[in-house]
Amino acid sequence: MARSLSTFAIAEMLHVDPGSVANWIDQGLLKAHRTPGGHRRVVMDNLLAFLKEHKMPIPPELGPTPVKILVVDDEQAITKLIVRAIKSKHSDYEIVEAHDGFQAGTLIATMRPDVVILDLRMPGMDGYEVCRMIKAQDTTKHAEVIAVTAYPSPESQQQIIDCGARICLAKPLDIEQLLAEIEKSL
């Protein structure tokens, strides 16, 4: 289970009044839940998301969070190639693979990646649907989507951009360009 923090612990950590933290929660700015006794509790991931969204410094006790990348492609050879390339430059990144849109949806909800590298054509749920899902959720809409496709066309590229992707790259991938786009996304 994820670690939960009280409003007092958060206030102490951020050097603010506990009433400010309670107000952030009551205004819906900071996602929280209530204990059976009525006390507010904030899951660590929600606090980190709040701090990032409001460009507030992350306290040292919360520690640096690793960059999280989800690579989604139905071709396992492609995901392995992308993961190896990223790991060769950034061994500290947390990288997870998904091989269909449904698996990607589950991982996106639990992992909350910073960047999603997303193939457009997959069986079941395609990249367009996955991208729309990412951008529709408050907890994941921050994720930058880098789409990839073996069938590039101006129409498909515009369609995925309209769904919320930042860019669409053609396969075979130029790995250096992909790594540069990941850096731009972060």
List its traits.
single chain; 186 residues; alpha/beta; Multidrug-efflux Transporter Regulator, Chain: A, Domain 2; Rossmann fold; 2 domains; five-stranded parallel sheet; three-stranded antiparallel sheet; 8 helices; 18% strand
What does this structure look like?
The structure is a single chain. This protein has 186 residues and is an alpha/beta fold. It folds into 2 domains: 4-62, Multidrug-efflux Transporter Regulator, Chain: A, Domain 2; 68-185, 3-Layer(aba) Sandwich (Rossmann fold), CATH 3.40.50.2300. It contains 8 helices and 8 strands, in the order βααββαβαβαβαβαβα. A 5-stranded parallel sheet has the order 5-4-6-7-8, sandwiched between helices. β6, α6 (127-136) and β7 (144-149) form a beta-alpha-beta unit. The protein is elongated, with a radius of gyration of 18 Å. The protein starts with a strand and ends with a helix.
pLDDT < 50 stretches = none
Helical amount: 40-55%
Q: What are the secondary-structure elements, in order, as H or E?
A: EHHEEHEHEHEHEHEH
The number of helical segments is 8
Biggest sheet overview: 5 strands, parallel
Strand content: 15-25%
Q: Major sheet: order of its strands?
A: 5-4-6-7-8
**Can you tell me the CATH class of the largest domain?**
Alpha Beta
Quaternary structure type: single chain
